[in-house]
C-alpha cells in the first residue's frame, strides 16, 4: 500500500497510482491549500508568471472600475465591519502619536534608564585589498559597548531579568574593570 499523511490536514491518504507523489488528500480545503502553495511558489520563482498575473489583474480592474462600490452597496455588514476596524486603527495611530510626542518610551521601558552607561563607538569597515575576497564593500556599523565595571550589565549576571543589554547566551566574559566615562 502506498499511504502517507496529507500535508494540510494530516489525515492518512492512499496515493493514486496516476500520481505516486501525491501529498494532499481529496478534501476541498486541502486542494485549495495545495493550489495556494503552488501559486505562491510560482509567483516568487517565475517573473514571467508574476508579470502575466499583474497584467491580468490590471486589465480586469480597468474593465470593472466600479466593482468595489457595487460590492459595498450589496454587503452593508462588510462596510460596517470595515469602518469599525478602521476606527480602531485610527485610534491606535492617534494614541501612538500621543505617546511619541510626549517622549514616552515604547520599547524596553523597563531597561533601567538610570544605569545607562553605554558608550557608542563608530567603526568604519573598509574594503579588503586582495581582489579574490568576496563582499569587499565599505560599510559603517554602530556598536554600543557596555562597561564591565557595571555589575548589572555583565554577561554572566542574572540579577535583573528585565535588563536585556549585555546578556549573552554562553561564551566567556572578560571581567576587567574599565574606568567609567567622564561626564
Spans of at least 5 consecutive residues whose pLDDT stays below 50 are 150-179
Question: Which overall shape is indicated by the principal axes computed on the Cα atoms?
Answer: extended
- Class derived from helix and strand content: alpha+beta
Rg from C-alpha positions? Answer: 29 Å
The overall number of domains is 3
Distance separating the two termini:
77 Å
What do you see in this structure?
With 183 residues, the protein is of the alpha+beta class. The chain has three domains: 1-64, no CATH class; 66-106; 108-183, no CATH class. 38% of the residues lie in helices and 11% in strands. The chain contains four helices and four strands; from the N terminus they run ββααααββ. It has helices spanning 28-45, 47-63, 67-74, 76-101; strands spanning 3-5, 12-14, 119-125, 139-145. The strands form two sheets. A two-stranded antiparallel ribbon has the order 1-2. A two-stranded antiparallel sheet has the order 3-4. The radius of gyration is 29 Å and the shape is extended. The termini are far apart.
